[in-house]
Amino acid sequence: MEAPPLSSSGVASHLRSPLLPRLSNTGGTWNPRKPCSKSKKHLSIRASSQDSTVTLLDYGAGNVRSVRNAIRYLGFDIKDVQKPEDILSANRLVFPGVGAFAAAMEVLNQNGMADALCMYIEKDRPFLGICLGLQLLFESSEENGPVKGLGLIPGVVGRFDSSSGLRVPHIGWNTVQITKDSGILDDIEGQHVYFVHSYRVLPSDANKDWISSTCNYGESFISSITRGNIHAVQFHPEKSGDVGLSILRKFLNTSSSKTKKLACGKASKLAKRVISCLDVRTNDKGDLVVTKGDQYDVREHRDGDEVRNLGKPVELAGQYYKDGADEVSFLNITGFRDFPLGDLPMLQVLRCTSENVFVPLTVGGGIRDFTDGSGRHYSSLEVASEYFRSGADKISIGSDAVLTAEEYLRTGVKTGKSSLEQISRVYGNQAVVVSIDPRRMYVRSPDDVEFKTVKVTTPGPFGEEYAWYQCTVSGGREGRPIGAYELAKAVEELGAGEILLNCIDCDGQGQGFDIDLIKLISEAVTIPVIASSGAGAVEHFSEVFKKTSASAALAAGIFHRKETLSKLKQEAVQINLELV
Ligand code: 1PR
Q: pTM for this one?
């Protein structure tokens, strides 16, 4: 949500419309009317085609494919809002806010949607706002602002305070504390739902009547609001697996029916995530397959040196989702060679996967500016946009980020033109992962190199006690004059929202994560770090979470070897309990 405007017109107008309801600092002047009979009488029965239609307010600032997929998956049809009247005539309206607060308000104000939205909500018609769709209901936001919001709820949207080391964005699975009946959040007390945001609203006396749940991340913030038929959630139900689908189902199937009072639970803590990674590439027969290497070598070295084929990407992703993966990543490992948008099978894989997988999807490989054979230039932003439209929630940049960081460290200038900067500016930091592919380089003394070293737990082959981690590009094929530590700090400054920290030495070895490396990097940055490479046993996940401050652990081989995720998930739950 921290992206700046994605405006097509460039005309800014953040003035609140005279039609909008008056704000009250006490929160007491706005009284929703009784719901209309139509919205009340239909419970979970789809009695007519109108009842099975959900109106979606997609103002075109990002990917809402996942929300669409989830709604369709639950058996509903979607009608897109084309004009303000479509809002007013909606039977139930879903508003999955994406992108930046200012950009969203600008679009809503320009085309009359803001007025229609306020009238619809004033009438207490069934409404579900998601993420930015919750924040926009408040008075204003500090995101690139202050910027006025719809002003329906007292409160200011502000950024999480990272000054005391809190990792921002807040990315991952957290639990919420239910504070009042909402009718849609029953049974989710103690269950994890998926958040991804840098901005939040704090509870106050003025907005307390609206709050239906809070969440804890450094502080208690509003995770959902409810009044009458108006609901909004800061988390992403469409990315929260079965729990999220049940929330959506309840909203779509019910009107304002009230349910049992839920008990308030204890404060939550962001859970450590387990990410399933699928390295994909086109094999020698031209099929897109899941493969997996040892120290980045994906050839069989027998049977004609073929690329290892572990199965079909869509099927495997679906299986890992069912087994409980918190996220799924696709890395197109030869994307650096070709033009990614020429890789239509990869786009198709994303589209198909996102129809049935309701946890975050990341895609990486080859994201950079590109000029094709006919001289047509494609910006990395266009490439990323196509991935987002096809169902990705995050994109991962490898080689291009290394070159960008090198340039930044050399000149000290942020050009704003790199892939990393452009994509994070438009889609938000939380949508951009930088994937680092470092190789361990032993040295006798930290003075031997200009890069940050660590004292290694296990000395090198000649008794060396230190190592630095050399970044590579093109799938480990080329070493670069930059260390993982220097790269991580640079890409954080340039706008990365997360770091995927691989290690070529450990990749595919099943001997455990490189704890020295992961400690080094996770202590150097304030954005979340995903530990990757080397998991071979459930204990390796416990070890990395206990010994480092990594936010997530990614693995590939262990899952491909059918060592089930579910066992690991049980262990992860235990680890999280111990870490609280
Ligand atoms: O440089 O922007 O085109 O991105 C290429 C992407 O593809 C990078 O994210 C890079 O890490 C990845 N990649 C390139 N070549 C390979 C290869 O294996 N030959 N895969 C490759 C990297 C590393 C992890 C792996 C973990 C866990 N694979 O993704 O899944 O190491 O494995 P394990 O649990 O089996 O040990 P660009």
A: 0.85
